[in-house]
Queue: 3 jobs
Job 1
Amino acid sequence: MKETQSAVKETAIPLDEVVASLYKSEGKVYARSVSGLYDKWRWVMVWATQLFFYGMPWLMWGQRQALLFDLEARRFYIYGLVFYPQDLVYLSFLLIISALALFLFTAVAGRLWCGYTCPQTVYSEIFMWIEHKIEGDRAARMKLDESSMSKHKFLKKFSKQTVWILLSLWTGFTFVGYFTPIRELFGHVLNFNLGPWETFWILFYGFATYGNAGYMREQVCKYMCPYARFQSAMFDADTLIVTYDKNRGEPRGSRSRKLEEKNLKANDLGACIDCTLCVQVCPTGIDIRKGLQYECIGCGACADVCDDVMDKMGYARGLVKYTTENGLKNNWSRKQIFQHILRPRVLIYSSILGLLVIGMLTSLALRPSFRTDVVRDRSVMARLTEKGELENVYRLQIMNATEALQHYKITARGLDKLRIEEDNLDANQTVSVEPAQSRWISVRLEIPDGTQPPGSHPIYFDIESVDTKELVSEKSVFLVPR
């Protein structure tokens, strides 16, 4: 036993020699500017998303903000629709539809969302554009960062940081403007009269934008975003991805521009000239020539710059391109590739997504202009009145989902000789509710004592809109004590 213990001690690995690092520190990625088809599409999406984000809070719908999620008043205004917290089912529908749409787009075209419309990508693109305009392109930025501090360097860095901070604060302000009327919020900012929560969220969202888009950039995509980790589960051999044609490109190496593509194999060369521009333009700093990697966001910058190099060399475009594994393997044409898009997985996603969208739109179209909740008075189950009537008390919440004054008539049914006491109603048993407001009504139902056996008896409240003629029925119970 002693010999065994001695042998274990001799072969044991010292603890100070076992080091496991869960994070790999990497240098700053200096992405080179690029122009091309995919770059143009990225900027189209940047403009489209940011015009919507920054402009929508200022759009008016009648006398109010067109898109406003008023958490304090518990009202959600989406153009001509007014939603209450009880309409949470529509948010669930929207989230499910968004998730399925993401699955569908990923199955068809890989990380299409990441490369063109993800907020992290969009704001990183904007911040890098600002950096490029102030500090210069890739080589100039690298030289500036390596140089010692000087007046020239300080002014450039200060200018960049100032623009970044102002844009970040405006982004935070706009974000809060979706939850607090933005015109009122703007007045509070000008008068230095912001509330504590508005101040916190403007600074918090602004700081998140500044940090993520200004500094973390590709680190968010690599280490923080869960989508990059589970995207491979949604890929298959017919998913469009940005890929490098290894058979055509290898072996890579430099050569004279006079060497034609048809003579490359005779000189033991592929189409890739090993210029590394595809690496320099990549916003996440990967080498697409190493194959599909989870860090690739599918932005197509490498395809743009490679096409430009191929044009200069007089070679055919498409060394780096959007294609599928099967398309690359079988040398399919673009038409053949798109013919394989309509595969079972895509058809299933599309069918489910279509049904959900139709269902949600139908539900919204048939949605009544008001909602009603019925709550029994929990303080008294049932009581006898001075007139010898058995009474149950209820509280009705009527939520007006229109932006006009509405009148509602309340009746009850389900038991013989059931009647409503008219303390809270007018002579016509109606109640008025202000535009886009809710109102609690206390309602007393009475029946003659002894006309019903003890127990719980189902009843129904019928609430009819006098103005729109819509009818909503809510079930409750009438309790008869023993």
Note: Residues 370-480 form a domain with the Immunoglobulin-like fold (CATH 2.60.40.10).
Job 2
Amino acid sequence: MSGAGATADADGADPVREASEAAATLRERYDELARIEARIADLGRERIEAAADAYRRAHRVLDRYEEDAVGTGDFGSYVQFRGEFGEAVDVEDDQLAADAFAAADEAVDKRRLSESDFAAAREALEPASEYVDLLADRDEALDDYRAARKEAREAKKALDARLDDLREVADMADADLDADVSRLREPIESYNDAVREAFEEFYTSASAREVFAFLDRADGTPFVDADVPPTDLREYVDEYEAGEEPLPTLLEYADYSNSKLEHYVDDPGALRTAVAVHRTYVERLDAEPLTLDWPPAEGDEMAYEIDELIPLVSRVADDETVATLRSVRELARDEEYERLRRAAAVRHALDDPELDLLERGVIDDRVREAERTLSIAEDVLTETERE
């Protein structure tokens, strides 16, 4: 489970709503793009681009020569301007905005030009700007469509994941959420606390050889995932007298200077080589392989695991801790165990919003809503796909 709630993510986002909105936006962007492209097709794309190109060329000529070609300015610039501008606005009679280009040419067809003539030419060209804007609108609409399609795909992907979560929650509807799971939690927590304390005492007081021998035995049981020592560290502990010391003492020795360490061990170099490089391993050793998981395993598995744990735990913990472990095994064999375990597993897997869906009995409605929205999103993505 995502653990973020079945109706919304941790940041408050609702994948169902967002997928619906993204699909609606994609449909709008697609329709807008189609409307613009239909208009372009009606007018003829080549004719529109020709008109837009002529409009841009004409404005570039006006901008380039306005300062030099007005009044009593440079006659050569005037002549060059007239030639270039006349060429820029020379379009076929049936060209889009042909009248605008002709009017612009007429506005500057004078022996002496003023700034107002240039302004009049620009004003005359204005009808042709529609086609520049139309092409710009098409590019913007295409960008908006692509962004909306990307967002819709991402929203659909998020909804796919949320629907998986919702279905998983729906599969848990069989759990008895009113069951008193404390009947399991309390003895398991009590045992785990006790065995952690017992192992810590064993770790700090027993010799390194004893601890490693215990780990070897624990590793030989299928349900206990003990972290056995590295080979070189194990060989050092077995072969050198320092192996009779507790592991914390060996770590302390590894911090000594050579001159000081010579007073405690026969071969300081061997200790440093074997112990110092494995400090992280030694410091990480704890009782976790001996603890029981929460939520607990199924009854038969739990009982079998405890059967294997009892001989191990008996070596490091007191009788009371072992007795608590046995009591958990008896619970695992009780006919009520599976009901309690199922409730514990569901409560552990779900956050409050998800539990609320189960408790109010609306989870199936949410699944159907998500399925409908996903179907709509898939249809919109298919129907708005462009070649």
Note: The CA atoms of residues 204 and 246 lie 6 Å apart.
Job 3
Amino acid sequence: MTPADPGGRFRSTLESGAFTVTAEVGPPRGADAEALVRKVTPLRDLVTAVNITDNQGATVRLSSWAGSLAVMAAGVEPIMQLTCRDSNRIALQASLLGAAAMGIPNILVMTGDHPRFGDHPGAKPVFDMDSVQLLMTARTMRDEGRLLSGRELKPPPRWFLGSVENPSAPPLDFRAIRLRKKIGAGAQFIQTQYMFDVALFARFMAQVRDLGLDERCYILAGVGPVCSLRALSHMQNGVPGLRIPDDVARRIRSVPEDRIAEEGVSICAEIIGELRQIPGVAGVHVMAMGNEHRIPAILERAGFQPRPPASIAGAGNDHAH
């Protein structure tokens, strides 16, 4: 017997055509799932789903599947991230099956940062597959009911599949073509790297529309606040392919240090407003690692209102986010 498609609120909201908001949280560096629940609870009525990262930055944290189960129990729909860095194809397929068996409705796959950038630089990288290969594997498991080995799955798993893209990374003209490859491999939604340069993103989306990709996949633009000069420096110098326009950087540097976070929140809200006007953008993905408590203020300033509590179970009729 084949299990029903989980059809979570995230997917149904996108399919309704409503501008959709997701957020990202990092699991704790410790064996306390409640720390993660405390982060997501204030977001429950503001966003449609929350990404649970998979050892982001190649640093050890509570596993993404455990974090996904914890936030599900708290009434928040998870998007479970799964990277290729730490596992071979056997373990990756097992993780995918486990997620489906536990009712996790959304999976986002990525290749992952090299271990040399994290807290265990001597760890052996696996990279048995890349994100495109893992997407193809997950799609085959779901749609054909087979493992990479060809063995049949009874029952096959069900999920809503996603991946990531960085429109700011060079070569710029290649990004939409690369996105087409991921969509062809099975991506049904895409979340991008931080987008501070709205004009650049608008050009990317024009290429996306020319290729008809916005009709084949839901694209959520990544946004987030710059909350300190240290964060600004890291984003400008330590994150490959991330571009912060000079006018945004000047604006952050122009305010007193104790007001930078507030200014970062305002800039983020303004960028969301601009992104909403770009054809083909299905929503935004808010990333505020270490500053998740600022996400409600960002969304409030961007004009989003909390859902009434009674609507939490009525995912299919939610048109607010």
Note: The two ends are 34 Å apart (CA to CA).
